[in-house]
Design goal:
Elements (H helix, E strand, L loop, with lengths): L1 E5 L7 H15 L3 E6 L14 E4 L2 H7 L3 H11 L7 E4 L2 H13 L5 E6 L9 H7 L1 H8 L6 E3 L2 H11 L6 E2 L7 H4 L9 E5 L8 H14 L5 E5 L5 H10 L6 E5 L6 H6 L3 E4 L1 H9 L4 E3 L8 E2 L20 E2 H9 L3 H15 L4 H14 L10 H14 L2 H9 L11 H14 L3 H12 L1
Parallel strand pairs: 1-2, 1-4, 2-3, 4-5, 5-6, 6-7, 8-9, 8-11, 9-10, 11-12
Antiparallel strand pairs: 13-14
Helix pairs in contact: 2-4, 3-4, 4-6, 5-6, 9-13, 12-14, 16-18, 16-19
C-alpha cells in the first residue's frame, strides 16, 4: 500500500517520533510512505533514509484556502507519488490539507484522522469550525472507521466538547521497546528523569520544581534531569534559579532520539507523559504519569495504575501528590523496587510496536474508501479574514473597552459581530463567502 502522512509542524516530539516509527515499520513490511510537512525542522533525523520526506513550504498554507485545482497542481509538480491508498492526518490543520489533497487524487483513497494530541478536533458549530476548519471534516465528513483515537479518554474528551457521540476506532500509541529492553537498567538512586518539549500542555514541569524542593527538605538526595527544549524553557530556568535549585535541577536540552535508552538506563524514576512515558516503562523505570495542563504536582499513581491505554490524559480518578509517589519509591528496598520495575515493564508491553502496527493495518483495511469530501475552501478564507479583523486596531480598542481581550481569536458572538462589521469595510466579498459557509454548516 501507499501511505501519505501529513502533519502541520515538524519538531522533535511525540508526533514526529510516532510518524517515524510507523513509517519505518510500514516500509520494512513492503509499503511505501511519503511524509509531508510545511517546512524542514528539528526531528528530520528521526526518519529512515527510505522514508520520502516532502516539504511543501508556502504551498502547504495555500492548500488550506484553495480547491482541488490548485491541489492537483501541487500533486503533479511536487509529489513523488501521484496515487495513495491512505492519507493519514496527524493533527486538525493537517486534516484540512489532507482533505484537499484527497479530493484532487485521481483514484479513490482512504482519508483518516488520528486524535493523538489533546485539544485536536475539539471545535464544533459555526464558531468552532471558523476557528478550526479541520474539525469540520473530522465531525461532519469522516465515517467512524476513519477516526483513530489513542485511547477511550481521548474519544470521551472530543465527545464532551461536541455534546454528542463521535465514534471511532481505538488505536494506542505504538512504541518500539526493543532498544530499551536491550539496555540494562542501572538506576542511580534519587535521579528523576523527564523527557519532552517544554511547551503547551506539559505544565507539570513548573510544578515539579516545588516537588524537588519539598523532597530535599525531607532529607532525600534528589536530582532532576530534564531532556527537551521549547518556548517554556526561559520561564523554567527562571523558576529554578529563583528556587535556588540550579545544582539539583539540570536542563539538558534536546537529545538525539537514539540516545534515550542510555538516559533511561540510570533513571530511578521517570515523570512525564506520552511516548516517553511508555519508553521509560519498557526500560523498567518506575514511572509517574504527568497530566496534561496540570494545575498542581499530582498524578493518578504509577504507570501501571492507569486504565486501558492512557498515558497522560486528564482522567476522573483520585489523584496522589507526586512527592508522595517519589518518596515511596525512594524508601523501598531493592526487592520492592525490582517488583515495581517488573510491574512497569509488564504494563508497557501492551504498547509494543509490532502487534499495534498489525492492528493499524487491519483498521486501514476496514476503512471506507472516502468519497469526495465536502471541504469549502471559503471556510478557511473566512476564518483568516475574521482573525485578521478581530486583531485589527479598531476592534482591539473596542475589545479593550468591553474587557474582552482574553477571548481568543474569533471569540464571543459580540466580537464576531464587530469583526463582521469591519470585514464589510475591508473585504466586501466576505458576505458571499459567509453565505456559502452558512449553507454548508446549518
Amino acid at each position: 500500500m501507499q501511505f501519505l502522512f501529513i502533519h502541520h509542524h515538524l519538531a522533535l516530539g511525540g508526533i514526529a517520533t510516532l510518524m517515524a516509527r510507523m513509517s519505518a515499520w510500514l516500509i520494512q513490511h513492503d509499503h511505501e510512505v511519503v511524509v509531508m510537512f510545511p517546512w524542514d525542522g528539528p526531528g528530520k533525523e528521526l526518519f529512515a533514509g527510505s522514508v520520502r520526506l516532502l516539504f511543501l513550504g508556502n504551498h502547504f498554507e495555500k492548500l488550506k484556502r484553495s480547491g482541488s485545482r490548485y491541489a492537483r497542481h501541487v500533486i503533479h509538480t511536487h509529489f513523488p507519488l501521484r496515487e495513495f491508498d491512505a492519507l493519514i492526518a496527524f493533527s486538525s490543520p493537517a486534516l484540512w490539507v489532507a482533505a484537499g489533497i484527497h479530493n484532487a487524487l485521481p483514484c479513490a483513497s482512504r482519508l483518516c484522522a488520528g486524535a493523538w494530541t489533546p485539544g485536536d478536533y475539539s471545535h464544533t458549530g459555526l464558531r468552532g469550525y471558523l476557528r478550526d476548519p479541520g474539525s469540520f471534516v473530522f465531525h461532519r465528513q469522516l465515517s467512524p472507521a476513519n477516526r483513530l483515537y489513542m485511547s477511550h479518554q481521548a474519544m470521551r474528551e472530543i465527545e464532551a466538547r461536541a455534546g454528542g457521540s463521535v465514534p471511532g476506532a481505538i488505536w494506542p500509541l505504538p512504541v518500539d521497546g526493543r532498544p530499551y529492553q536491550a539496555t540494562p537498567h542501572r538506576p542511580v538512586k534519587g535521579l528523576i528523569v523527564s523527557v519532552g518539549r517544554l511547551a503547551d500542555m506539559k505544565t507539570y514541569n513548573f510544578h515539579m520544581v516545588e516537588v524537588v524542593r519539598s523532597l530535599l527538605a525531607r532529607g532525600l538526595d534528589i536530582r532532576w534531569h530534564i531532556y527537551g527544549d521549547g518556548p517554556d524553557r526561559p520561564r523554567l530556568e527562571t523558576m529554578i534559579a529563583a528556587a535556588g535549585l540550579a545544582d539539583r535541577i539540570s536542563l539538558k536540552g534536546s537529545i538525539d532520539y537514539h540516545l534515550l535508552p542510555e538516559v533511561m538506563r540510570t533513571a530511578f524514576v521517570f515523570v512525564g507523559m506520552g511516548t516517553a512515558l511508555i519508553e521509560a516503562g519498557f526500560s523498567g523505570v518506575p514511572s509517574i504519569p504527568a497530566i496534561v495542563y496540570a494545575k498542581d504536582a499530582s498524578s493518578y499513581g504509577y504507570l501501571y495504575d492507569l486504565p486501558g491505554y492512557e498515558c497522560g490524559a486528564s482522567l476522573p480518578l483520585p489523584r496522589v501528590p507526586m512527592a508522595t509517589l517519589i518518596a515511596k519509591l525512594y524508601h523501598m528496598n531493592s526487592t520492592e523496587y525490582s517488583n515495581e520495575s517488573l510491574l512497569t515493564q509488564k504494563h508497557a508491553d501492551r504498547f509494543a510496536l509490532h502487534p499495534l502496527m498489525d492492528l493499524f493495518q487491519r483498521h486501514i483495511a476496514e476503512m471506507r474508501l472516502t468519497k469526495q469530501v465536502f471541504r469549502p475552501a471559503c471556510l478557511c478564507v473566512l476564518s483568516q479574514w475574521l482573525v485578521s479583523a478581530y486583531n485589527s486596531a479598531p476592534l482591539v480598542r473596542v475589545r479593550r473597552g468591553l474587557h474582552l481581550m482574553r477571548d481568543p481569536q474569533v471569540g464571543t458572538p459580540a466580537c464576531m459581530l464587530l469583526s463582521l462589521i469591519i470585514l464589510a469595510v475591508r473585504h466586501p466579498r466576505c458576505f458571499g463567502c459567509l453565505h456559502r459557509v452558512m449553507r454548508a454548516l446549518l
